[in-house]
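Hello, quick one for you while I still have it in my head. A protein chain has come my way and I'm curious about its shape. Can you walk me through what the tokens say about the fold? No rush at all, and the record is pasted right below.
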Amino acid sequence: MIWTTTAWATCKSFIYGFNPNVANDAADVDNLIEIEDIRLEEVGGPLFLLKLEEDADETVVTDHSGYNNDFTCDTQRQPIARKWALDGAYGNAFAFDGANDQITLAEFDGDLAEFTMAAWIYNTAVDTDYHAIMGYQSGGANSRPPSVYVVNQTQIHAGFSDGTWDGFTTGDVLTQNQWQHVATTFDGTTYTVYVDATEVYSSTQMAGKTPIAFSSYKVGYISYSNYFEGSIDEAALFDYALTA
């Protein structure tokens, strides 16, 4: 048996044989299976996973989920990709300047009854402003789907709109100038915040609510002047609530 597949990235054809004496010309094969596209989708995997390993001059940020939800940025709002392994939580990371850096998923079918938002962050903000880790907003706060921020240097602000914005702010759960893993989850009843896999906040104030649908998403920025200041690594979004 021979399989031929067209690689969409390189437009090259490959022939695979299970016998070393197999014909090396597809034209010689009577029963040929042609595969135009192959995609591996992990059951329970993320809707997007950004490893953030790109070089400083890259404007496309690759999604590693299998859904091809690549993010983009322009050269004026481009976070710097750090080059040395120790600079990221894993490998490289993106450094956001707190002024205009951001990356954007321009087209996305976001309709989440449950979710998990997760990322490694290295927070360097020294003010009391909101600094967005990830989320989106097309108008006012009532257009905001699941979103998460650093605020007051060491606190997490998160929530979503179901037509009306509803959010909360944790106590002091972060440490500045240190890599920490932040995850916010919602299972339809309970909203939970984890820092380094430890639950630091939980609330049922949004029980029964459904987040509004959204068609775009951002990392490092959401709206107004709420830019992230510091570094972000391994950003991911899931359509169900993970646990620690």
Observations:
- The two ends are 46 Å apart (CA to CA).
- Residues 106 and 216 are 5 Å apart (CA to CA).
